């Protein structure tokens, strides 16, 4: 965007809203919105507490385990659906249902099955992330150029080699799926902990809100937002590296 | 129907002598798609070693289907293909395919793409790269070995496809409309290079094309296919001297006459 001939960088919008937040906060209109500077001050407070370090550890652990499982299972499922029409017919409807279903409603069921601890959070992350990865992988596999598959076959490539070519060809779609899975996984890790509410950031959120520590509350939310965005950005960078695929595939 | 007589696979002067036995032979090839669409009907052809044959015909005549059956990528509904006397059951190292849309791996360099066939055959890295390098140079891409397909023009990509097919040292090169996805100037240059390449590489070429000029310009033999169902309408053996200036071919009376003749024959299939 340009204003009076000056180019305005994108993050200027962020600044604008922070300033609005600060002004609204300074008027002390609502208990819910402390000024932004107060949130920043609370942030250092939050980050240095041992309970935050523990919450961060649990969050990172559950997130990474859940997401890794989702990536492996999602790519496997997508590959199966993309390559075997019968499997696709059998699974496609269910994957789509799970993708659009309000999964938060399922968390209590997961809790009954897996208890009030980390396994529930891991399963929640998995359930949030896996379906979009599966569907994007499926789309990628189905769009692999038929002539590339024929090429591999005609030059005597083995089954394993041919599968590798399919996977590499579908990489742009798979990465797009992983990027969306990464973002959904953050939702999963937060919602899972909120509903379990006795471990990790879930415990912190209930602690802060029950004691009306709104500065701390918002600080924690900002940290989680930053976490999700930087992860998505990281995958986005990876995606750009394989963008040239699309041009060379035709 | 008077211009194209329904002649059998050989016309005057092309009967195989014991010296030049056919390298590829199709016997009674039928291909039916989905139980109803007859793509090919009773194709009996012989392709002689070291010759360049064009499969020419309007779209829908099954020429690509026939080429893929010879390649072993498709199974005929009936009939048999023999290469060097052995029946074809699938792709084999004595045949190499050049694809219409190049079919290059976008994540691999020119050199790795050209070495793909050798890699699948289990040739050691150093040796396969040396051989691939040789053919990359031979198709005129020296200096582009480490580039990726998206950095090349369409014509250059097809040269990589050609290098890959040459590198496996197959006896038969099967080319599916290799020049249809490149622009006219590139196509002409490519055709000239192909004539030169034929003199260096002693290979049998089977080219699918829908361009009459291209077929006449390049081939020792032209198989005309008629559509719905695909049948051999006529086999022609252009007698054109291709040794001198490549441009001279396009002005030769034989070239011009034959192009005209074929067009008159094919005209009735084009609505």
TrEMBL record, chain A:
UniProt subcellular location: Cell membrane
InterPro entries, per database record: MetI-like (IPR000515), MetI-like_sf (IPR035906)
Keywords recorded for this protein, A-Z: Cell membrane, Membrane, Transmembrane, Transmembrane helix, Transport
Cellular compartments per GO CC: plasma membrane
Topology with respect to the bilayer: Multi-pass membrane protein
Domain ABC transmembrane type-1 stretches: 56-235
Transmembrane segments: 12-33, 58-81, 93-114, 120-141, 189-209, 215-235
Single biological process term from Gene Ontology: transmembrane transport
Highest taxon, organism lineage: Bacteria
Keyword Thylakoid: no
CDD domains in the cross-refs: TM_PBP2 (cd06261)
The family this protein is said to belong to: Belongs to the binding-protein-dependent transport system permease family.
Identification of the protein by name: ABC transporter permease
Organism: Roseivivax halodurans JCM 10272
């Amino acid at each position: 965007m340009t204003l009076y001939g000056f180019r305005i960088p994108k993050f200027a919008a962020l600044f604008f809203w922070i300033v609005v937040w600060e002004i609204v906060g300074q008027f002390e209109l609502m208990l819910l919105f402390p000024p932004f500077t107060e949130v920043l001050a609370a942030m250092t407070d939050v980050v240095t507490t041992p309970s935050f370090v523990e919450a961060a550890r649990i969050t990172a652990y559950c997130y990474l385990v859940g997401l890794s499982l989702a990536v492996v299972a999602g790519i496997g499922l997508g590959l199966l659906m993309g390559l075997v029409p019968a499997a696709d017919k059998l699974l496609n409807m269910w994957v789509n249902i799970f993708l659009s279903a309000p999964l938060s409603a399922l968390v209590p069921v997961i809790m009954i099955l897996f208890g009030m601890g980390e396994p529930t959070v891991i399963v929640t992350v998995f359930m949030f992330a896996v379906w979009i990865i599966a569907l994007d992988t499926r789309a990628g596999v189905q769009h692999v150029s038929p002539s590339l598959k024929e090429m591999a076959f005609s030059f005597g490539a083995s089954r394993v080699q041919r599968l590798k070519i399919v996977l590499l060809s579908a990489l742009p779609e798979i990465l797009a799926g992983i990027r969306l899975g990464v973002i959904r996984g953050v939702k999963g890790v937060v919602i899972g902990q909120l509903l379990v509410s006795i471990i990790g950031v879930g415990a912190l959120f209930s602690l802060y809100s029950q004691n009306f520590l709104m500065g701390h509350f918002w600080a924690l939310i900002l940290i989680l937002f930053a976490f999700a965005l930087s992860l998505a950005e990281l995958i986005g960078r990876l995606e750009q590296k394989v963008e040239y695929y699309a041009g060379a595939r035709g | 129907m008077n211009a194209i007589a329904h002649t059998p696979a050989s016309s005057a002067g092309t009967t195989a002598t014991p010296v030049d036995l056919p390298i590829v032979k199709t016997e009674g090839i039928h291909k039916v798609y989905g139980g109803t669409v007859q793509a090919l009907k009773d194709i009996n052809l012989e392709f002689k070693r070291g010759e360049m044959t064009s499969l020419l015909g309007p779209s829908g005549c099954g020429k690509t289907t026939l080429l893929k059956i010879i390649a072993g990528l498709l199974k005929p509904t009936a009939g048999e293909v023999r290469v060097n006397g052995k029946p074809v059951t699938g792709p084999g190292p004595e045949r190499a395919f050049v694809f219409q849309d190049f079919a290059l791996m976008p994540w691999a360099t020119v050199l790795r793409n050209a070495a793909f066939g050798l890699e699948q055959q289990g040739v050691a890295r150093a040796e396969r790269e040396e051989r691939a390098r040789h053919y990359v140079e031979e198709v005129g891409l020296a200096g582009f070995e480490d580039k990726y397909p998206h950095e090349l023009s369409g014509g250059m990509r097809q040269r990589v496809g050609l290098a890959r097919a040459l590198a496996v040292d197959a006896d038969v090169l099967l080319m599916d409309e290799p020049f249809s996805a490149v622009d006219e100037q590139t196509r002409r240059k490519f055709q000239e290079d192909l004539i030169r390449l034929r003199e260096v590489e002693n290979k049998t070429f089977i080219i699918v094309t829908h361009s009459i000029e291209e077929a006449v310009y390049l081939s020792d033999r032209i198989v005309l296919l008629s559509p719905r169902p695909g049948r051999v309408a006529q086999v022609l053996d252009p007698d054109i001297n291709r040794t001198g200036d490549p441009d001279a071919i396009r002005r030769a009376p034989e070239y011009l006459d034959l192009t005209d003749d074929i067009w008159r024959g094919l005209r009735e299939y084009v609505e």
